[in-house]
Design goal:
The protein is α/β, with parallel strands linked by helices and 312 residues long. It contains 10 helices and 13 strands. The protein has 2 domains: 205 residues, DHBP synthase, CATH 3.90.870; 79 residues, Rossmann fold (3-Layer(aba) Sandwich). The strands form 2 sheets. Strands 7-1-2-6-3-5-4-8-9 form a 9-stranded mixed beta sheet, sandwiched between helices. The chain has a 4-stranded parallel beta sheet with strand order 10-13-11-12, with helices on one face. Helix 1 crosses helix 5. The protein is globular, with a radius of gyration of 19 Å. The chain starts with a helix and ends with a helix. The protein binds threonylcarbamoyladenylate and magnesium ion. The site of magnesium ion (MG) has 4 residues, from loops.
Length: 312
C-alpha cells in the first residue's frame, strides 16, 4: 500500500492532533489502534477514559525504528536479534524501561517494563514520524470488546469521541500482535499472535509458553475479552435453534458465515473480528463457532475465541 497525496494531508493533520494531545484512530497490519502522544500524561489519560480501560493495564508504545525503541527500552543481545528479525511486524517486546525514558508512567501503568512495537503499516509509520514522538495505542475498541479491523468499526465504536480516524482499509493480519516478555531471565510468550512460538524459537531457541500467572504480568490478558454482546459457544459441529453459526473449512454445514471455506488460518484470522461483529449485530441469542485447529495461527485464533466465550 502506498500513500497518496490526499492521505498524506490527512496524516499530517492527524499528526498535529497527536501533538495537541488528541486521540487519533489509525490502521496497523494487526488491528486499528487508538493513538495518543505517549509522552503526555493528559493524552494518555484520554485513551484510558475513552476506552473505559482499567488504569493498571499498560499500553503498547509504537515507534518507527529499533534506534528509537532503544531510547525507551533496554535491549539485551537476544532482544536486539529478535527486533532485527521481526520488526517492522506484528510482535510486541516487553523490555526493562530505560532510566531516562520520557514515556508517561501512566502509559506503562507504573511498571518497570515497557511494551514496544514497530508496526508494519505505511500509514502508522508515517503518522509516528510526522507526530515526531512515540505513540501509545491500544486496540481501538471499548475495553473488553471486539478489536476493530476496519476504520468504520472505530468510527462506530467511538462516535463523537474520536474526531480523526485514518482509513487504511482492512487490516491484513486481523489479530493483535504477539506479545513477548523478554525483560527478565526467562523469555515468556504472553499473547499468541501471527508470529508464532515456533517462529520465535526458530530464531532464539526454546522459550516459556504462556505461563499461569501471565495474567498478572500482562494485566490485559483478562479472561473475558473480545466479547460480543451475545453468548458465544465454541467447538460446535452444528448449531442449535436460534444460534448463528460461524463455520471453518468445507466440512462446516449450514453456516451463517464461514471464516475460511478452504480452511486457511490466515484468512480465518483476518476475518475473525469482522465476522464476530457482523453476527453480533444481527441480535441473535448466541454465536456458535466451529472448531479451529490448534496449530500455527490457530493457536492465536483459539486464544481470542476462548476469551470471547469466557464468563463475563
Ligand atoms: O496489535 C497490537 O498489538 C495492537 C495494535 C494497535 O498495535 N495493540 C494492542 O494493544 O493490541 P492492547 O492494549 O489492546 O494490548 C496490549 C497488551 C495488553 O495485554 C497489555 O496488558 C500488554 O500488552 N502489555 C503492555 N505493556 C505491558 C508490560 N509492560 N508488561 C506486560 N504486558 C504488557
Ligand atoms: Mg485490546
Amino acid at each position: 500500500m502506498s500513500i497518496n497525496a490526499m492521505m498524506l494531508k490527512e496524516i499530517k493533520d492527524a499528526a498535529i492532533q497527536i501533538q495537541e494531545g488528541e486521540l487519533v484512530g489509525f490502521p496497523t497490519e494487526t488491528v486499528y489502534g487508538l493513538g495518543a502522544d505517549a509522552t503526555s500524561d493528559g493524552a494518555v489519560t484520554k485513551i484510558f477514559t475513552t476506552k473505559g480501560r482499567p488504569r493498571f493495564n499498560p499500553l503498547i508504545i509504537h515507534v518507527t525504528s529499533i534506534e528509537e525503541a532503544r531510547q525507551y527500552g533496554v535491549f539485551s543481545k537476544v532482544a536486539l536479534d529478535i527486533a532485527h528479525h521481526f520488526w517492522p511486524g506484528p510482535l510486541t517486546l516487553i523490555l526493562p524501561r530505560t532510566t531516562e525514558c520520557p514515556i508517561s508512567w501512566l502509559a506503562t501503568a507504573g511498571l518497570s517494563t515497557i511494551a514496544l512495537r514497530v508496526p508494519d503499516h505505511p500509514i502508522a509509520n508515517e503518522l509516528i514520524k510526522r507526530a515526531n514522538r512515540p505513540i501509545a495505542a491500544p486496540s481501538a475498541n471499548r475495553s473488553g470488546k471486539i478489536s476493530p479491523t476496519r476504520a468504520e468499526d472505530v468510527i462506530n465504536e467511538f462516535r463523537n469521541k474520536v474526531e480523526t480516524v485514518l482509513d487504511g482499509g482492512n487490516c491484513q493480519v486481523g489479530l493483535e500482535s504477539t506479545v513477548l516478555d523478554i525483560s527478565g531471565s526467562k523469555t515468556v510468550l504472553l499473547r499468541p499472535g501471527y508470529i508464532t512460538q515456533c517462529d520465535i524459537e526458530n530464531k532464539i531457541g526454546p522459550i516459556n509458553k504462556t505461563i499461569d500467572n501471565a495474567k498478572i504480568i500482562a494485566p490485559g490478558m483478562l479472561e473475558s475479552h473480545y466479547a460480543p454482546d451475545c453468548k458465544v459457544r465454541l467447538n460446535v459441529i452444528s448449531s442449535e435453534n436460534g444460534e448463528l453459526f460461524l463455520g471453518f473449512g468445507e466440512n462446516s454445514k449450514n453456516t451463517t458465515l464461514n471464516l475460511s471455506v478452504t480452511g486457511n488460518l490466515n484468512e480465518a484470522a483476518s476475518n475473525l473480528f469482522q465476522m464476530l461483529r457482523e453476527l453480533d449485530g444481527r441480535g441473535a441469542s448466541a454465536i456458535a463457532i466451529a472448531p479451529i485447529p490448534e496449530h500455527g495461527l490457530g493457536i492465536a485464533i483459539n486464544d481470542r475465541l476462548k476469551r470471547a466465550a469466557a464468563p463475563r
